[in-house]
Amino acid sequence: MTKSVFLTSAEDAKSKLGPSLCLAKWKQVSLHLPTGLNNSCYHPPLHAIDQTVLAVDPSTLHNTPYKKEQRKIMLRNERPPECSYCWTQEDLGNLSDRHYRSGEPWAAKDFEQIKNSTGDENILPSYVEVNFNHACNLRCSYCSPQFSSSWADEVARHGAYPTIVPHNAPEHFTGHRRSIPAREHNPYVDAFWSWWPDLYPELEHFRMTGGEPLMDPNTYRVFDYVLANPSPKLHLNVTSNFSVESKLFEKYLDYVKRLCDNDNKKLEHFMQYVSLDSVFERAEYIRHGLNFERLWDNVNRFLSEVPNRSSLTFIITMNNLNVTSVRNLIFNIHGLREVYSKTYQRVWFDTPILRNPEWQSLQLLPESYVDQLEFVWSFMLKKLETDNKPYKGFKDYEVQRLQRVIDWMREGSKLSPDYVRKQKANFYKFFKEHDLRRGTNFGLTFPEMREFYLECAYHAKSV
To answer: Is the pTM of this model over 0.90?
Structure first.
């Protein structure tokens, strides 16, 4: 097996960081501009950006007073409670995202400066994720009106889902929870574009999420800026459902081809993230509105038609609906690597764990479902990348990350029986309503989960 630089860097970061320091608190930011919220990565809860100071200092989009307090906690060698996901993984003996992120070059280069800082400094991040707009054509089961206009339209028509605490209730999405539509003035987007000229020279990774970025004019504004102002160190990344209508996809693909043109270097690398949790009808159920065949055709077109300076990563959100079928997606990813990864790795994947909504958590499933993931883990071990066959097999850290999914799933045995009963009741209440509103059929789509579904229906009668 070839030991990856990525894993080695994470292990090195672990040896240097101490019990609490995470460089992402300084060098990374996720900006949710439709709601005026931010966090340092996707694990901690979102917190509000003070709109009143943005006109004077747009860097407050990242350097909020709240985030500075979290930095100070880390510098005192204490664990901020908001970073509980990483602490849980580390207490299980696994490398956490704190180690992986801090070990990457865009963060690691500033280790000494951050270690010796006070926590009060204003920092220019080198890794920025931004959501400009919540416009989206999908209604993924675990998403919300904050991140999908289609979800917002549905609950405006039909109201909240009848879970124990009503889910995605329209009245919940007020204040900072209300996404500012693209047709309205958004001071957070204004502040971003004011900050952009200062931010851009420092950027090493810039990632646009959504909503659906292919539907957002700001995406193409960024593309135009990069085409006019090349940055040889820039990794430009976009997360998409890759299931938009054909005319829009053609426009997008044309832009990416120009950005990745080898003869006129505009950037270092373009990473296409594609959100996909399963295959065929199961994928379309989890991410309602998805056209799987269209997505898969677009994946192959991207890999074929943008052969230079580009890769594609599948974001496989691990939840209790994809456990029984994720193996088929992993098999297909392995097949793509065989076809497209020739001189460098062009097909990647990540397996983040879904924690909300809680009724879609892996931890609710019986122990027998763990076997499904252990089968995938075993397959990956048999197909590891080697020096003699690079780029085709699986990376060591991909196996390690799936192992931590399995470990976390098994931690469900420690949950209180009352909590589990309530969340199983919520599972049934949510997906029964899902089928009524959307014309789907859980039993036909997931026949192997019949026993679990009936158990959830039983608990729904008693709460």
So the answer is: yes
